[in-house]
Amino acid sequence: MTERDSRFDCLFESVAIGPVTAKNRFYQVPHCNGMGHAMPNSVAAMRGVKAEGGWAVVSTEECDIHASTDVLPYPEARLWDAEDGRRMALMVDAVHAQGALAAVELVHNGHAASNRYSRLPVMGVSDLPVAALEPSQACAMTRRDISDVRRWHRQAALRARDIGFDIVYVYAGHDLTLGMHFLSR
């Protein structure tokens, strides 16, 4: 076995991330896997293998915070309610069993969600066509809608904390999320 090049030693040092410490600097960023909320045992096993392989932080894919951000047929992770929390806890437990931190990426997809399953009206920052597989139209959000989305984010963040996620953050990129839509001109 050859000795590791000392230039890479910093990769194996622990690093503080807010109130938690990652055992090294290997951070598995969020990525979709095609299993989402539909196959929680498979997700837990797959993410657990990553933790077993040495990743210090293992993240979910984007995780829907409410039924108004339903992106089916894509089976994303979700934290709509306590039942979703029980499914997500399987992943958290598998990651923690290997000594890694579990991270969740919360999202509301705004007009990028068609709500085919939930059948809720699509919300957007303005009246825009839905950027999804089938044509539909988003309704411009009211102040009440904005307040609701803030509340749903808070509820999902608290749910994530309560089931054991160590890192909770909000996805706001790729022109797919309300956060990004509000920042765009």
Structure keywords:
alpha/beta; 9 strands; 185 residues; two-stranded antiparallel sheet; 4 helices; 18% strand; 30% helix; TIM Barrel
Instruction: Figure out the total of helices.
Output: 4
- Please identify, by name, the CATH architecture: Alpha-Beta Barrel
Give the CA-CA distance, first to last residue.
55 Å
Count every beta strand, where a strand is a DSSP E run of 2 or more residues.
9
Question: What fraction of residues sit in β-strands?
Answer: 15-25%
User: What summary fits the major beta sheet?
Assistant: 5 strands, parallel
Radius of gyration: 18 Å
Any idea of the CATH topology?
TIM Barrel
H and E order: EEEHEEHEEEHEH
Backbone shape: elongated
CATH superfamily: Aldolase class I
The number of domains: 1
**Any low-confidence stretches, pLDDT <50, length ≥5?**
none
Structural class: alpha/beta
CATH class group: Alpha Beta
- Fraction of helical residues: 25-40%
Q: pLDDT average, as an integer?
A: 91
Overall description:
The chain is an alpha/beta fold and 185 residues long. The protein has one domain (17-183): TIM Barrel, CATH 3.20.20. The chain has helices at residues 40-52, 82-96, 143-163, 178-183; strands spanning 15-17, 20-22, 27-28, 57-64, 77-78, 101-107, 123-124, 139-140, 167-170. The strands form three sheets. Strands 3, 4, 5, 6 and 9 form a five-stranded parallel beta sheet that branches. The chain has a two-stranded antiparallel ribbon with strand order 1-2. A two-stranded parallel ribbon has the order 7-8. The termini are far apart. The model has no long low-confidence stretch (mean pLDDT 91).
